Amino acid sequence: MCGINGIVAYHPASEAPDENELVATREAMRARGPDGSGAWWSLDRRCGLGHRRLSIIDLSARASQPMTSEDGRHVVVFNGEIYNYPRLRAELENDGARFRTASDTEVLLHLYARYGTEMVHRLRGMFAFAIWDEELRGLFLARDPYGIKPLYTANDGWTFRFASQVKALLAGGHISRDLEPAGVVGFHLFGSVPEPFTLYREVRSLPAGHSQWVDPAGPREPKPFANLAEVLARGVADRVPAAEIPDRVRSGVLDSVRAHLLADVEVGIFLSAGVDSGALLGCVRDAGLSEIRAITLAFEEFRDTAEDEAPLAARVCEHYGANHIVRCLREQEFIDDLPAILDAMDQPSIDGVNVWFVAKAAKEAGLKVAISGLGGDELLAGYPSFVDVPRWRRRFGLLANVPGLAFLARNFIRAVAPNVCRTHPKALGVLEHSGSWAGAYLLRRGLFLPHELPEVMDAEIAREGLRRLKPLQRLAASLTPDPDSDIARVCVLESAHYMRNQLLRDADWAGMAHSLEIRVPLVDFTMLKVLAPAIPSLTPGSGKAALAKAPAVPLPGAILTRAKTGFGVPTGAWMNAAVCEGSVPEGRVLEAKGVISRRWSRAVLNGALATKTPVEAHAA
Amino acid sequence: MRRFPAMLALVTDAFGGRGGIAQYNRDFLAALAKTEAVSSITVLPRHAPDLSAPPLAVVQLPARRGWIVYSIAALRTALFRRVDLVFCGHLFMAPLALLIAWLKGAKLIIQTHGIEAWRCPSRWQRAALEAADLVLCVSRHTRAAVLSWAAVMPERVIVVPNTVREVFSPADGSKLRAVLGLEGKRVLLTVGRMDSRECYKGQDRVIAAIPDLVERGHDVHYLVVGEGTDRSRLEALARDAGVSERVSFLGPLGLQSLAEIYSIADLFVMPSTGEGFGVAFLEAMASGTRAVGLDFAGAKDALADGHLGTAVSEKELCPAIARLLDESKPDPITLATAVRVRFGSKTLAASARAVMNRMMEAT
């Protein structure tokens, strides 16, 4: 886990990049890599690469980056982990490659030298990297299939820039801050900024599972090399009966956990009282790790109530013999940390606060790496959306396709039940959006719906943003090829949108703010290929039940039972109080969670737009 | 065997045309022809007032002035010829170009220049641009403007800047100075259209600066080259400012005279607010004359963000001119060489190759 950046002056008319810019961008990512830094320049100084290091594999100085191949032709900067690098290394050594380090970074150099851009198909892990090819005068960039690691690019027509963070690119001082309407609208629709857009027009995210080539002819369009829908569609074609689900889940998850334990530093785990993290802890034990520390976030408000996860988490720890660290959080700490949270948020997001605090706790415990159960709900149909989206399609799909009916219904509800509009604003969009998978998913996950945007933001920006974002087409495109299974479709939609643009981004900025690498064994493309044939056979609860039984010693039954009722966290109320300046009026109509999220989103967006880069802050 | 594409170029003007866009089209189409990555280029212009022979592999059809006549000619040309690639030289023609590309199953390249692309165009023009396989912009500013209103992949929008012709090179201008009675004067020069509908080239800003420059001790004389309906306003401005005797309007000049006039100037000044690129900056600097402009729009590209010429805000213009007149003139050969490294024929050839490579990759 690191921060990477680079500048390529690809156009013959452009000036060679400024060293100060490379350093300014790199140093804006100091928290991503506190263990060291490096820079490299091509001989003609038309390409510069920067790196901030968080040492996790091969802690020696020889594994520092940017790393150059022995013949000097290739130079790499890399953020992430390649979990199958020991096997890749052995294969490469068999073919005559000579290694100078024990790092996974060097594997990338040899793989590129041997397989070129096709190398990406051999990688298992979370990664964002750039390799400069001195002979071809080109830069090759790639990002992992799920988009666990971020990679942002900017191209002004003469010069190409990239970095692990949007704010770091801005800190370089050469990128326009003109807003991207699609990014602003995307944030209002989803609560996070959907890739490839960012809040700024000139900055784009390299989409997950894509690579890009940049040479003197300029940056090419990103090319896909991995597609979640395709894997699920193939899985549906090779569907296995429900009876095989537990075995598939057991073997797939255990293999993934084993891979994710690869490190030269201690690996800890975030532990809630839910199934995902508990099962992962069990699998960690099965993978042979005898000493493991588990971090649980507890809330003072919930002490000695049924909402308190700490006692159940403690029971899981006892069950698997892990060392339990309970970090108690109070509202005052949230208030104190809020400015830092908003500052660390690379792109606005309505979530991530919990991750901030659990990462903070892990850092306080001296951990550099922690495993998270993120992704379990998307993979194993744990969200209500797996029930709601297909149900809405069935119930309202036909009506939704009657021309004009949705419009009439919306206005009718507005007229006869204005309170419903306020407390459940999305009810107005049910008929409008249930006609397609994309629409039903937007209805389920949307923060605001498209018809509401002119009321909450500049109408012209809303119109132009919707035109550029094309939210429904974008959602529908992620379902190509069609997995042809309700569960698989929702699995793709949740993984390729909510998880990718929100949960994984939150895990990145919140983890990195504390120099903590968060590993997600349930977000693993190799494992997905194993589980894909089982996913269409999942029923509500069966996936989580299989996961609970994945460890050799299954999770205690109480965990599965309790998890079904869910837990609350008070952070939503704290956010609401913070936005309402500390007070929520008594007697107020009980507000839906979505309404609070909407209010919080305004505060987050305003904070993001007001944030200055370190350079600007210094100038001010 | 690989079949190279046949191109139909729909342009306002190119060979035999006047002005910056015609020059750009000529240079770019000639460079494309030289790449040998196109089998033929058929050019259909709307205007061609002068006689001019296109290079080998380029055929220019007779100009068709009226819009309807032009559209019919374009469709007829496309119908009876092989067309694999349509080059649209102006956003105004983009819908027609898209229609032809669609009818022929051809790829589409749209060229954008300056102010025509800085604001969102008509719905049809925007739709045509968004459907293009490649959009060429003359500068980074025009590219950023296009991306502000077009929902198009940024990688499809590339910058192909103007080039500077070989005729513009450092020369001894002392004889011409003597002929024009400018010996001992500090000569400022602007080359540009004087269009009363646009008024953006900035000659008025230079005229306004003259009294201040004289007060600072510079015996300046300002040469204004070009034609247009705004000339009488500028002459009146000079009279009102009491500097008529220090301003000479030379009218339009032929290529050779233009090359000579660049060499006699101490400073080329064009504080324009509407340059798509500003090829006159390149011509001046390739002639060894320093150039100053505003740090706005395409001028920033021509001045290479201040690395070749001087790019300043409007407020800093007069002090910047005074400072540059105070400084000794840099070596003209060094300046001309630096300009050619960035914007010479090799750069345009590389851009043309890049465009064709991109089109090949897309097929």
Break the fold down into its secondary structure elements and pairings:
The complex is a heterodimer of chains A (620) and B (363).
Chain A: E1 2-9, H1 19-27, E2 36-41, E3 47-53, E4 67-68, E5 74-82, H2 85-94, H3 104-115, E6 125-133, E7 138-143, E8 152-155, E9 159-163, H4 166-171, H5 181-190, E10 203-205, E11 210-215, E12 218-219, E13 223-224, H6 228-237, H7 245-260, E14 267-270, H8 275-286, E15 293-299, H9 310-320, E16 323-329, H10 331-344, H11 353-364, E17 369-371, H12 376-379, H13 385-400, H14 405-416, H15 418-423, H16 430-433, H17 437-445, H18 453-456, H19 459-469, H20 471-477, H21 486-512, E18 517-519, H22 525-531, H23 542-548, H24 557-565, H25 571-579, H26 593-610, H27 614-619
Parallel strand pairs in A: 14-15, 14-17, 15-16, 17-18
Antiparallel strand pairs in A: 1-3, 1-9, 2-3, 4-5, 5-6, 6-7, 7-11, 8-9, 8-10, 11-12, 11-13
Helix pairs in contact in A: 2-3, 5-19, 6-21, 6-22, 7-8, 7-22, 7-23, 8-9, 8-23, 11-21, 13-17, 13-21, 17-20, 17-21, 25-26
Chain B: E1 6-13, H1 20-35, E2 40-47, E3 58-60, H2 67-80, E4 85-88, H3 94-104, E5 107-112, H4 123-131, E6 134-137, H5 140-149, E7 157-159, H6 174-179, E8 186-191, H7 203-215, E9 220-225, H8 231-240, E10 247-251, H9 255-264, E11 267-270, H10 279-286, E12 290-294, H11 299-302, E13 310-312, H12 317-326, H13 332-343, H14 345-362
Parallel strand pairs in B: 1-2, 1-4, 2-3, 4-5, 5-6, 6-7, 8-9, 8-11, 9-10, 11-12, 12-13
Helix pairs in contact in B: 1-14, 3-4, 7-12, 13-14
